[in-house]
Amino acid sequence: MSAVQNYSDYARQRIVALQPGFEKSEASRSTLIRDIVLMQIGIDPACRSRNIPAVIPRNLIRFWHDHSALPDDVAACMSTWERLGEQGFGVRTYDDDSADRYIRDRQGEREVTAFSRCAHPAMRSDYFRLCALVTEGGLYVDCDDVLLNDGWTRLFEDDRLKLQPLCYDIPAGGMMQNSDIWQTDLPSGERNFYVNNDPIAAPPGHPVLQHALCRATELLLEGNGRPEIQATTGPGNLTTVLAAHAHALLLRGDPLDFSLIRDWDAIAEMRWDLSYRQDERNWRNVYGC
């Protein structure tokens, strides 16, 4: 048995051994995401398809809260994706008003109310992408992502949900390089592994996104003070639901119906030097994160 196979088997065993409710612990969620990464290491990309026809529709979904005040530098980022229209994509960008209409037309009163309680544009973006992808599927990307090449085609090769893993190195006080996340021999240290909610490629109605939307809705409707964005609608919410979902699948002996994107930073890059990041449109400046 190869060393890579050993890593995968041990990772699977650790996940199956977790107790119900483990996903409420950030440390346990982090360990599971790391184990999912280890399970994927060494898998030949040509063998990842489950021989099921791809059902992720060619929809490109984006959100910017106010189209009338779209910054030029953000518009420049968005323009790099327009060529997907030539590949048969429906390219749509929603704002607060059109997102509200979309949710009213396709979801219920609970979701409409929950969306209205998203106090910051980043939270409304988080919530809306779940609504749109649950309803119709496709590819969601943030408006500050710049498309670099045609690697996006790999996200549409099968029907699995595709998510990007991230890792925060706690002692270093910063994010790890994407390539380092996939090392089997990471040096010891405190780290928080999780999944991002940008990008998301999904078929319509994927159970992880359905549960993430339901959980975010419930948290918003509870109305307890000012909800924390990451945990309520953002990556924290998505990671919590994904962890419980993966655990349930592996307990039953079922294959995973999602995969982690290994090389998103080679496909697209987030631009950090944008004007909106200096003011209240950047949620980190409002919420102190």
Automatic annotation (TrEMBL):
It comes from the Bacteria. Keywords: Transferase. The keyword Transferase applies. This is Uncharacterized protein. The lineage of its organism: Bacteria, Pseudomonadati, Pseudomonadota, Alphaproteobacteria, Sphingomonadales.
